[in-house]
Amino acid sequence: MPALRIAILHDFFTSIGGGEKLTLELARALKADIITTDIDRQNWSRLQAHDIAFRSVGETIRFPILKQIHASWLFARSKMEYDVYILSGNWCIFAARRHHPNLLYCHTPVRMFYSHFWDFLKICPWYAKPVFMLWILIHKLLLEARLFDVNAIVTNSKNTKKRIKKYYKRDAAVIYPPIRQYKHIRYGSFWLSVNRLYPHKRIELQIEAFRKLPDQQLWIVGGYAQGDHAHAYVKRIMKDLPKNVRFLGEIDESLLAELYGSCKGFIATSVDEDFGMNVLEAMSAGKSVVAVNEGGYTESVKNGKTGMLVEAKKEAIIKAVQSINKTPGRWRKACERRAAEFSEERFKRQMSSAVAQVIRKYRRLQKA
Most buried of the four, 66, 153, 248, 361, by CB within 10 Å? Predict the structure, then answer.
């Protein structure tokens, strides 16, 4: 039997986060091509993705709202010839009408449409608010219509599964992402934070906590994509930075491995995080995690065993950092064991099974 020709559709490959890392691992596991819009070749190189076939359906207009509309349109008009399609994102869902059988790996329902609408509206300039609200009203209805063309849904956590049920009115199977394993080097002089620089990541909470910890360093890794709604937020948090906080931007994989391996501990503060691959990456290097006690972190972090789950308050973060500083290696082995549970082999086996199941289901429907 010939191997299946599999396409993985992903919204953009510009700024790099958990969704992009998962897409790359999935492409390697299933020997699939990646179909996307914008491709940042520099970030592609940083991720060491030269072994994967990329194809772009077109470049988007790099301006908020227009970017998301354009991406949806590019996917809606695309035509591909594969045996099965995995949708990994939000705007690529618009390709579902023409491409079957398909399987949506949902990282989260669109935050700005649902759970974080008011947060995004707050940072939107006053003169753009009416356009923003009109766009969401129309685009959300169009997206929900396209969800009827999605054959099946899997997702990254029990937390996201609940959101899918609440907002999309669909059931989803949970397949936890694979975690790249990093090596422990030492417990260095700095704490690490790795995330996209978006408002719901609450980077300002990390900054304010470390403002009160002048003898501790915080190094923040990450960026944001041009045309997203993050520019004003990043500009704001960059003002009046304490001397002990450094922004490193987007970095290559070898330097990231060095930072994971050498940091003292890891900080994570996202609002209702989908799952939290970054905390497990830090754990794989034997590093304890301080994370807010909400969302996917409650599934990935074992409180008091691989890190500390705390209130989303700077005082709670300060207290946890000071506690772990006393003996940063106390949970090293437990952290490494926990991260090892999320293996590439498990992910490949479960995703292969989900793909085979959606193909069988679609064929039965075609015969009915």
Answer: 153
* In contact, 268 and 320? CB cutoff 8 Å: no
pTM as predicted = 0.87
What would the CATH number be for the domain defined by 6-178+343-367? 3.40.50.2000
Q: Distances in Å between the alpha carbon of 301 and those of 14, 71, 85, 173?
A: 28, 35, 32, 21
List the structure tokens of 49.
């993705």
Strand pairing report for 190-194 and 265-268: parallel
Q: Which of 270, 259, 262 is nearest to 300 (CA)?
A: 270
Contact at 8 Å (CB) between 252 and 149? no
**Residues 85 and 103: beta-carbon distance below 8 Å:** yes
At 334 the pLDDT is 98
Strand order of the sheet with strand 153-155? 54-56, 33-36, 6-10, 84-88, 102-106, 153-155, 173-174
Torsion of CA 163, 169, 173, 179, to 10 degrees: -30
| Structural fold of domain 190-340 | Rossmann fold (3.40.50)
Instruction: Kindly report the number of other CB atoms within 10 A of residue 165's CB atom.
Output: 13
CA–CA separation, 363 and 368 (whole Å): 9
Q: Do you find a cis peptide bond into 101, omega within 30 degrees of 0? A: yes
pLDDT for 45 = 63
Same fold flag, 6-178+343-367 and 190-340 = yes
DSSP states along 257-325: HHHHHH-SEEEE--TT-S--HHHHHHHHTT--EEEESSTTHHHH--BTTTEEEE-SSHHHHHHHHHHHH
Contact 202, 271 (CB under 8 A): yes
* CA dihedral over 49, 52, 57, 58, signed as positive or negative: positive
Average pLDDT of adjacent 10-residue blocks, the chain of 368 residues: 86 82 89 91 65 88 89 96 96 97 96 84 81 93 97 96 96 95 97 91 96 97 74 84 94 93 98 93 98 96 97 98 96 98 94 96 84
Q: What are the structural domain ranges in the chain? A: 6-178+343-367, 190-340
208: enclosing H helix or E strand: helix 203-211
pLDDT at 2: 64
